[in-house]
Amino acid sequence: MFSLFQEELGIKISETMHSKLLKFLINPLEKHGQGDKFLYEFLKTLNIYHPKEGKWKVTAEEGKVDILIKRLYPETIIIIENKSNWAFDQPNQLYRYWYNNIYLKTKKSRSKFLQRTQGQISNNLSHPKRK
Length: 131
What we know:
By secondary structure, the chain is of the alpha+beta class. It contains four helices and five strands, in the order αααβββαββ. The chain is 31% helix and 22% strand.
């Protein structure tokens, strides 16, 4: 795993700080001067349906979710679980995020999960199963 901050810059940042940095870049309301450019490029990478439609809200570190990106119409909820400093997944972590932030609020069970594993992005079109 490559860590730009630790390996290249000699700076160790916490997962919380990493999430806030990503949120800063993705959020078009931040003062980075790029407007919605980073958000739309990220959404295009995820193949989000009509990414320029609707109003997007980006939050970090709220309710244990590292980064949450939402829009009301067309309804879209993106949860980013940030793993930095070689942190491990917690038991049922993604299931809990899906259940609390998507299912309970929308009552929709069909979700799309993208997971980066060893440099590859796998695409799972169903929610993670509880173990």
